[in-house]
Write a structure and sequence with these properties.
single chain; mainly alpha; 0% strand
Length: 506
């Protein structure tokens, strides 16, 4: 008898839940039709009559049944993942989100679960990509219900940075994000309210002129009159921190989007006094600088590729090979594809600007309570200095083709000076940070490697001697077997600069 009573109670509760969801959905439809203001669902959501319910209202409606139901859903979703049975997996994850809306650690895990554990189970790159976007949409759905939460904003940044920007499939992901961030006709014909809707691409971020779309810059926290324009302010707009780097003529890098959300997280910590559930304040505060550095390096690589295409040369797969491949091209060489060279020039200018911004961001991070992290980031900052010289020289080298006759001599001098400084900086960085252990006691008897500043005070000849001698000592000590990937990268930069200087001073 007791068992039958319990079954009746459960059936009554389930029926009541479904009826409540249905009635609420009908009320929403009627209200929307009456106001004729069609409020679309948050990007990427696939809503049903049940999932359209407010998360907290749904939790209250279930009462004491919420805990057991969530436990069942967690178990089923993890079992489906292990069995690679993904049918219905997204539905269970969405239900968990709705039933545990106040637990940020749940959302951090589930977005990570989708972006990493589930995406790798997909056979094609396209399906991996859409699964990652689904993870980002999951976070945007949470953000729509509880905006300006540091845990959610940071998780969005992390997926763009780690998964779309730095994973083994990064070449494919970076290209897709850049292309789709520009104005494009959607390939998705279904309405986003349709349960069968699935995201296939990101929405456009910039307009035809490369400027961030107005709706992504709409503030929810307008700057008060007593806060100076030069002071930090968090206005709550989706892409607040992309605007200063307009225009985006070649699309928006995933690192740029990551920087925007990392910077929002930093401001939520600094101005909003929020703390991340799992990460230290130092980590949150340092990430905008790291994102800018990676963004600068990606723009640099993108420019290299476009420069090679502009001169009709094949594009090597290896990053180091990109450096030397175009180094031998004469400035006056007639390009095969001028449009590609224009993109290369834009990317070099953009990369140099980003490198400067990244160093400024590192210096901002190292103020105050984070000053003890100086040793951790000094190598990054030294590299950014070298990078600025290198990229400014590359950009002006391309400008030599079209420079007016009356400014050609001065421009050429500037290019030579910047390449010389770049070569000196790269050489100093190799000696400072990547000198072989076997060479230190031989070249520096006190076993103290000079600082970058001290090395840059040395003559070109002295730096070149240290560079060559350190390598020879290591080769001899290792019986002729030598490999140092970090050093090889910097040597490729030095070789490119030397090639260009040879072209300019035959």
């Amino acid at each position: 008898m007791k068992k039958q009573s319990r079954i009746a109670i459960v059936i009554t509760l389930v029926v009541s839940l479904l009826c409540a969801g249905l009635v609420r959905q009908l009320a929403e439809i009627k209200r929307e039709n009456a106001s004729n203001t069609g409020r679309g669902a948050t990007a990427g959501s696939r809503r049903t009559s049940l999932s359209s319910m407010n998360s907290f209202a749904l939790a209250l409606l279930l009462g004491g049944l919420r805990g057991p139901l969530v436990m069942v859903l967690w178990t089923q979703s993890e079992q489906q993942k292990q069995e690679k049975n993904l049918e219905g997996f997204d539905t269970r994850i969405e239900w968990i989100r709705l039933l545990q809306p106040e637990f940020d650690t749940v959302h951090i895990f589930q977005s990570w679960n989708k972006a990493y554990n589930i995406s790798v189970q997909m056979a094609s790159l396209a399906n991996k990509y859409t699964t990652i976007l689904d993870a980002i949409d999951y976070l945007h759905n949470v953000d729509a219900e509880r905006p300006d939460d540091i845990n959610i904003i940071y998780s969005i940044a992390q997926i763009y940075f780690d998964k779309l920007g730095n994973s083994s499939e990064k070449a494919y992901y970076r290209r897709r994000v850049r292309e789709e961030s520009m104005p494009h006709a959607s390939r998705q014909k279904l309405n986003r309210d349709d349960p069968s809707w699935r995201r296939l691409e990101i929405d456009s971020i910039v307009d035809a002129d490369g400027n961030v779309l107005a709706n992504l810059l709409s503030p929810t926290h307008p700057r008060p009159a007593n806060v100076p324009a030069s002071a930090d302010w968090y206005d709550g707009s989706e892409m607040q921190f992309l605007k200063p780097f307009e225009p985006y003529k070649t699309g928006v890098s995933p690192f740029a989007i990551a920087y925007n959300y990392y910077k929002r997280s930093q401001m939520l910590q600094v101005l909003g006094k929020q703390t991340h559930a799992q990460l230290s304040e130092s980590v949150i505060h340092s990430r905008p600088a790291l994102a800018l550095k990676n963004w600068s390096e990606e723009e640099w690589e993108f420019g290299r590729q476009k420069e090679l295409l502009g001169f009709g040369a094949p594009v090597p797969a290896e990053k180091n090979s990109l450096e030397v491949a175009a180094g031998s091209f004469a400035a006056e060489r007639v390009p095969n594809d001028p449009a590609s060279l224009d993109k290369a020039l834009f990317s070099y200018d953009r990369s140099a600007r980003l490198a400067k911004a990244a160093k400024d961001e590192y210096e901002y991070h190292l103020q105050g309570s984070y000053a003890n992290s100086h040793a951790q980031y000094i190598a990054h900052m030294d590299q950014l200095d070298a990078q600025v010289y290198h990229l400014q020289a590359d950009a002006d080298y391309l400008r030599l083709r079209t420079a007016p006759e009356n400014s050609l001599a001065d421009l050429k001098k500037s290019v030579i000076a910047n390449y010389q400084q770049a070569v000196r900086h790269w050489a100093a960085l190799v000696v400072r940070y990547y000198i072989e252990p076997e060479a230190i006691p031989v070249l520096f008897p006190d076993r103290v490697v000079p600082s970058t500043e001290e090395l840059l005070k040395m003559s070109d000849q002295k730096l070149a001697t240290l560079l060559q001698a350190s390598k020879q000592i290591a080769i001899q000590a290792r019986g002729g077997h030598y490999s140092n990937e970090d050093r090889e990268e910097y040597e490729a930069y030095i070789a490119r600069g030397a090639q260009r200087l040879q072209k300019l001073n035959p």
